[in-house]
Specification:
The structure is a homodimer of 107-residue chains.
Chain A: H1 5-27, H2 30-39, E1 44-45, H3 46-53, H4 57-69, E2 73-78, E3 81-86, H5 89-102
Antiparallel strand pairs in A: 1-3, 2-3
Chain B binds a DNA duplex (30 and 30 nucleotides) through residues 29, 31, 45-47, 56-62, 64-65, 77, 79-82.
Chain lengths: 107, 107
DNA sequence: TTTACATTATATTAATTAGTATTATATTGA
DNA sequence: TCAATATAATACTAATTAATATAATGTAAA
């Protein structure tokens, strides 16, 4: 049975698009974007993020949980504090472009 | 009344995050990603996209409508055909990074 | 070692708002 | 009248989020 090369390409493209979509959906939330933006500048503990972004603690924890589940961040405990850092090069690459497009100061 | 500088920054960050989120949500769909990927390689008419991606015509038209509404693509009519091209530099920049992260051949 | 407190995570629920495929039909141009 | 594309309407299937309460873990002090 012959499968036209175009079908193989299309299937590969669909798989790649689905994976890409996964990342994009995880990024598609204001709080998560702000969190990743902070964490991408260096390791941050939860209370630092709470102060910097003024997000309620349970919301913060919930959204950090999403980022953990999706493998975008990793954690390190130090006493009472838990420090978050970026764990996905793909996410970091996208965050950086988004920063350049939407957050870079004019000029 | 004094507004701490941090609040101004935070507000600006929220506005930027919301705009960014808008783009990300529009990109967070397999069909739309595939469409943008094709169109980013050069102007395409609807029937070309339909053949290349094997997406039903009404679905195609619906998703192209989303991309138009969000300003990600623009159109040009030529007789019976309507040609689509990328109209957002922000979208193009993101698509390019995504391609490098998820679609570039190994090595 | 018990108590208390600080930090963070989880569970639950309520409220809201959505994404998608499908079918049918309309529009526009040749 | 046919080809290309868009729109409308519907039906399906559910996803996101905020809020409240509580649990878990670690530290420090009484």
């Amino acid at each position: 049975m012959q499968i036209p090369a175009n079908d193989l390409n299309l299937n590969a493209m669909r798989v790649a698009a689905d994976r890409t979509c996964g990342l994009l959906k995880t990024l598609s939330n204001r709080d998560r974007l702000l969190l990743l933006c902070q964490i991408s500048q260096g390791e941050r503990c939860v209370s630092e993020l709470e102060t910097a972004l003024d997000i309620h603690q349970p919301t913060l924890s919930q959204q950090l949980g999403v980022l953990r589940d999706e493998g975008l961040v990793s954690t390190r405990r130090e006493g009472k504090w838990i420090y978050y850092s970026i764990a996905s090069k793909e996410a970091l690459a996208v965050i950086e472009v988004l920063y350049h497009q939407y957050c870079r100061p004019p000029q």
